[in-house]
Specification:
Length: 677
């Protein structure tokens, strides 16, 4: 058994050649596309005014009563456990040259913050305020020749924070390093200035990163793993010829998503030949099947990072895990930081939109739906407003994506709150008169749903083309895509539950049409379910048993050309069996009716058999139970006996034929080997 303590320390041992930084905010303040607070100058003589002007964010502190200083701050995305660097260009535009102005950050509230200030006659100072009191090192003025003096002189102020350690820079020169133990982190920064000062900041950049010890290191020649676990004598190639993850059991107990005790695993990466590429330091690794980018999680949901297919880190593990966003075909990723702010990066790790938005959908057609506060709008990838915020309803159930300049959106409550299609000018291409619109990628069409008059359990479905124009296909009470065809229904076809959203509906008759509207399978069935083979459909007829609430189900099979492959003569598999997963000789066999081998389990008069998708009987009705087939083998039960059978129903003596191909090493005892050359 490996040393558990060594494993628990593993997250802090693996190293990287470079400390990848994430630019979370950048703004030259040339305009106000990123939403600085604005209070324009007036005639008052005891107020503070601020606005974007003259290529910067300008604050004019005209206050004379009360406190002598004032700040104007804004929020940005941040991870409170990461290292942070913030730098700004700042200049005093008016006022006495001995009046302080500068940078405030980690501004939790008026009682807790850190500031770094200078004067135009050449002095600087810094302090941390915690709970209204000076924290640690007292404030002291220091004269410096590094400061460019006089009004309108621009100085660069920079602060690097690494945990409790703060390093202060003036014009790229380190002037002070101070520890503020336990000073709270907050994602707010801005200008800090005393009365009778007018100052400007611009060229703002904020970075966050992790220490190199927290970054993954690709295993290469000469690498020595800190793990003490035994190493396998030979590699095991992946089945699909691509890199794959592997796991180790930490020996630590955790709690599953169901609230039950579970073993805690850590994950690593091996190449297609089975050699180790990354040590098991991650609580999660997801390899995107299309572009090969790796999304890794170090410790928890607030530590996601991204690696290229070549295992080069482009984003450190400081993002918050979001399972619904990946790099789009356009090469952009909408992601968020733990304090909830969203931004956009590209596949080189470059920040395209700063982390200042309350929510972002995926970039599509060069634009993106964004939310500020409670208001949705559309911006381009430079952050310019395309559709004003507040023009789109919050109550949208779908991904708000533009396709060829058209997007599905909800209207505002004042306009009825229904769903329609808009263009990038916020003009309605299709008026918001539908309860639902869904895009069908396969056929490049839209399926619409609206309520049937005077019947809330009945709907009207239509099909629109990619431009939003109605196709010459009649409306139905139900339409769902299936490959290039559509399953349609007439009657009361409301959904309850069921595979792929197709629930049992006793008052609806279902059939199949092609994309031109031609009927392929007649509308006479109570349910149609596409199988794993998209050209085959399972059909059902329901019959109510007189005097009871029982419904008898008869099943058969049609192909996509409308041919009856299996007559509707078998019974539906009883729910008590269909919902079980059986274990036999440590192998798991589910009870799905159709396996990946294209074999359909059938049931009638209490007995199980099997047919293939051409309708040929493989196993006559003779068993008390048959599981789905795995590698040509199924688990079967007859009387009190349990055993394995092949596709013909013949008993198989050895269960090895049913065992899946080994794809992982023993998670307790072995690590994949490291390639020596």
């Amino acid at each position: 058994m490996f040393n558990k303590m060594a494993l628990l320390c593993l997250l802090f041992i693996c190293r990287s050649a470079s400390g990848q930084k994430l630019l979370v905010y950048k703004d030259a303040c040339e305009d106000n596309r990123f939403g600085w607070p604005v209070l324009k100058t007036g005639l008052a003589t005891d107020s503070v005014f601020y606005n974007i002007e003259n290529g910067g964010f300008v604050v004019d502190n005209k206050r004379h009563k009360g406190a002598g200083f004032y700040w104007v701050i804004r929020s940005y995305g941040a991870n409170p456990t990461a290292h942070t660097s913030i730098q700004v260009d700042i200049a005093q535009l008016a006022g006495d040259d001995n009046r302080p102005y500068g940078l405030v950050f980690n501004a939790k509230d008026v009682n807790t913050y850190v500031y770094f200030i200078i004067t135009s006659n050449g002095n600087y100072g810094m302090a941390a305020i915690k709970d209204g009191k000076i924290h640690g090192t007292p404030f002291a003025w220091t004269s410096s020749s590094l400061i460019k003096t006089g009004l309108n002189a621009t100085n660069q102020l920079k602060v690097d924070q690494k945990g409790d350690s703060y390093s202060f820079y003036i014009n790229e020169v380190l002037v002070k390093k101070i520890d503020y133990p336990g000073q709270p982190f907050a994602g707010y920064f801005g200008q800090f200035l005393f009365s009778s000062v007018r100052s400007k900041i611009d060229n703002i950049e904020i970075f966050q990163w992790l220490p190199e010890s927290d970054l993954p290191r690709k295993i290469g020649p000469g690498y020595v793993s800190p793990l003490t676990m035994p190493v396998a004598t030979k590699p095991i190639s992946s089945k699909d010829g691509k890199p794959a993850t592997f796991s180790i059991n930490t020996g630590v107990k955790t709690t599953s998503i169901f609230g039950t005790p579970a073993d805690k695993y850590l994950y690593g990466l091996k190449d297609k030949d089975g050699y180790r590429l990354l040590d098991p330091t991650f609580s999660r690794i997801f390899i995107h099947p299309e572009d090969g980018f790796l999304y890794t999680e170090l410790k928890d949901k607030d530590s996601e990072g991204i690696l290229t297919p070549l295992l080069e880190p482009i984003v450190p593990n400081i993002l918050q895990n979001d399972l619904f966003h990946w790099f789009t075909k356009e090469g952009y990723l909408s992601c968020k930081l733990p304090n909830g702010f969203w931004g956009v990066i590209d596949k080189a790790g470059k920040t395209i939109l700063p982390f200042i938005y309350d929510e972002l959908d995926d970039v599509s057609d060069g634009v993106i739906f964004a939310r500020k506060g409670k208001l949705w709008g559309v911006i381009d990838i430079q952050g310019n407003t395309v559709i004003p915020f507040g023009s789109v309803s919050n109550n949208v159930l779908f991904k708000r994506l533009f396709r060829n300049g058209i997007a599905i959106v909800s209207a505002s409550k004042a306009d009825g709150g229904n769903v329609g299609l808009i263009n990038k000018k916020a003009e309605w291409v299709v008026l918001p008169k539908y309860g639902l619109i869904r895009f069908v990628e396969q056929n490049k069409t839209y399926i619409t749903e609206s309520a049937y008059p005077d019947n809330n359990k009945k709907s009207i479905y239509t099909i629109l083309d990619e431009a939003g124009k109605p196709l010459p296909i009649q409306s139905y009470n139900y339409i769902a895509e299936s490959g290039q065809n559509y399953i349609v229904g007439e009657g009361v076809c409301y959904e309850s539950s069921g595979s792929q959203g197709l629930a049992e509906r006793s008052l609806c008759k279902f059939g199949l049409i092609d994309k031109s509207g031609k009927i392929i399978i007649p509308l006479k069935f109570n349910r149609i379910l596409p199988l794993s083979n998209k050209d085959v459909f399972r059909v059902e007829l329901h019959e109510n048993v007189a005097g009871t609430s029982t419904v008898k189900i008869k099943i058969g099979m049609y192909n996509s050309k409308g041919k009856e492959v299996i007559p509707v003569q078998y019974e539906g598999i009883p729910n008590d069996n269909a919902r079980k997963q059986w274990f036999f000789d440590n192998q798991r066999f589910a009870t799905t009716e159709v396996s990946e081998d294209g074999i359909l389990n059938v049931y009638k008069d209490g007995k199980y058999g099997a047919v293939d998708i051409t309708g040929r009987v493989l196993i006559p009705l003779q068993f008390d139970f048959i599981s789905s087939f795995l590698n040509g083998i199924a688990f079967a039960k007859k009387g009190t006996d349990t055993f394995y059978i092949d596709k013909s129903g013949k008993k198989v003596k050895s269960p090895e034929a049913a065992a899946p191909v080994k794809s992982e090493y023993d998670p307790v005892t072995e690590l994949p080997p490291i390639r020596k050359s």
